[in-house]
Design brief:
2 copies of one chain form a homodimer.
Chain A: H1 4-14, E1 23-24, H2 27-33, E2 36-41, H3 51-61, H4 64-69, E3 71-74, H5 78-90, E4 94-99, H6 104-112, E5 116-120, H7 127-138, E6 141-142, H8 149-168, E7 174-179, H9 184-196, E8 200-207, H10 212-219, H11 245-252, E9 257-259, H12 261-275, H13 285-292, E10 301-306, H14 313-323
Parallel strand pairs in A: 2-10, 3-4, 3-6, 4-5, 7-8, 7-10, 8-9
Antiparallel strand pairs in A: 1-2
Helix pairs in contact in A: 1-3, 1-8, 3-5, 3-8, 5-6, 8-9, 9-11, 12-13, 12-14
Chain lengths: 325, 325
């Protein structure tokens, strides 16, 4: 299971390859939040999301012979791009299995990062069977998006940086709000903070209606979302917390915070105006929680992770038209 | 006159206050540029542009008694915000003199950074007389936008970071393209690179029709722009290179590169898609030069500074609609 030694080993493998993303701030945002506010701009990571960390960690952790045969992932989003670029930079093949109705831009981007994209029909195809057959034929290793210890270790390197950067900013006590889908990033950050900055507490942030982690933390057991579609925060919509990630969340995290889609759009517009970064809806939920639910945050400072920036131009302009006018 | 010792002294005063902005890259942009391409994302600086560096450098260089009386600047743009925030963080007053028809958002932002904004009528008022009277009455020190050695020294700290970050990336030979208005940023970077990374060469980038620095470098003497309006790259439109900055440009810089407004918009859209940063038109001209005029660039690597991100949402969405569709 992932622990601080695994995270530090992942950090050593990532050194020189991952970007140490900046911790940003703005007096205008602090006025809204009513406290010191820092933004860990992980949307500036390679491939536009934190997923590159987990992808690199998992690919680099394989023994060379296994790695040389290649890796496979199921994803139409940020995980696909993270694994694809990590594999490319290691000089090994990556196969990404995507539904044939995935946005053309996402397919093109994943190919642009060097992956072979295998499409399947969502209605008639069996994704797992296709993947299993490809993996068996070619000896590919499956890289799961979050319920995989080396992926969690890679995402946890974000937490090591937060611990260092918060200390540099003189912050020793704060809630660290993290956009939460399956819980890979949140659990990794929680483990890193436990060891390196025990005054910082990780908390998941989620979109309304897809608050499985928040409800699971409330009940103490894994709860499922009633649906898988209907939020613009697609990057962090998953059926339920992972079997590996949830026990970590339960042991270490504070309560979840839930935001509306409109609050996520508003946070995107403020990040544009005040921080000059591009954040996707799912990546903006933690910033939205810090800005628009300050009564649920504890302490004199808060740190919000903006986990990704892969947003369609039309959606981005909708956010600006509504909230940056 | 500004030299490397003044730049390093400015860096010491700026330490802990300025953001060390990241050096970003994307394989998609490198494919377009046809060489290794790095982007110094100075739009992520405090106040959304490099101007905070020069403002802080100038304010912090004043003797305490002079500084306590306050500072004054003439600007409706990035320099105003940089000086305002630098003064606020030093706990001293800042007066910013702006035309009364300046955009409401810019006036509000400058006030938001703690400055007193004094408006004058562009048609009937005498800006310099108003400023001189205020300065005399209150003992304020004028902070000029570029033709001022301590401002150039502050902007030059960008060059110290580029020298370090290029070395970390293994780049020892490259053109460094810099959006150029009055030449404060370009000359400061050129001085820093001369001392710390002599294989890197600064070159100004400018919008078509406002290419005073490019023409001045060509003729060897200061040339003026025929007009002061008509480009969307308003942040870098100035009448001519400065009397202090031009001799530095002439001694150290390679030839200028000129781009169209549409190329600047295209570069903004690609920075959104591939780097997840917000760049204003004037701040995007160097990236546009690297992407769309590769035949004018020398060497296997190029570094483009994106100098600011203070762009109206409508202009930003125009860029996305045209070039990120």
């Amino acid at each position: 299971m992932t622990d601080i030694r695994m995270i530090e080993a992942a950090a050593a493998r990532l050194a020189g390859h991952v970007r140490r993303t900046p911790l940003l701030s703005s007096p205008f945002l602090e006025e809204i939040a009513g406290r010191r506010l820092f933004v860990k701009a992980e949307c500036l990571q390679h491939t536009g999301s934190f997923k590159f960390r987990g992808g690199w960690s998992a690919v680099s952790a394989l023994d060379p012979e296994t790695r040389a045969r290649g890796v496979i992932a199921f994803s139409s989003g940020n995980h696909a791009q993270g694994v694809a670029l990590a594999a490319k930079l290691h000089g090994v093949p990556a196969v990404i299995v995507m539904p044939s109705d995935a946005p053309a831009l996402k397919i093109a981007n994943t190919r642009g990062f060097g992956a072979e994209v295998v499409l399947y029909d969502r209605a008639t195809g069996d994704r797992d069977a296709i993947g299993a057959q490809l993996a068996a034929e070619r000896g590919l290793t499956l890289i799961k998006p979050f319920d995989e210890p080396q992926v969690i270790a890679g995402q946890g390197t974000t937490g090591l940086e937060i611990a260092e950067q918060a200390a540099e900013a003189g912050v020793t006590q704060a809630d660290v709000l993290v956009p939460c889908g399956g819980g890979g990033l949140t659990s990794g950050i929680a483990l890193a903070l436990e060891a390196r900055a025990p005054g910082l507490r990780a908390r998941p942030a989620e979109p309304a209606g897809f608050d499985d982690a928040t409800r699971s933390l409330g009940s103490g057991q894994i709860e499922r979302n009633p649906a898988m579609t209907g939020s613009i925060c697609d990057a962090i919509v998953t059926p339920q917390p992972g079997n590996i990630t949830f026990p970590i969340l339960k042991r270490l995290c504070g309560p979840g915070i839930v935001v509306t889609d409109d609050e996520a759009l508003h946070a995107m517009a403020l990040a544009f105006l005040r921080l000059k970064i591009v954040v996707e809806p799912g990546g903006a939920v933690a910033l939205a929680a810090a800005l628009f639910h300050p009564e649920q945050v504890e302490g004199a400072a808060v740190i919000a992770v903006t986990s990704g920036g892969n947003v369609d131009p039309a959606m981005f302009c909708t956010a600006l038209e509504r909230y940056a006018g």
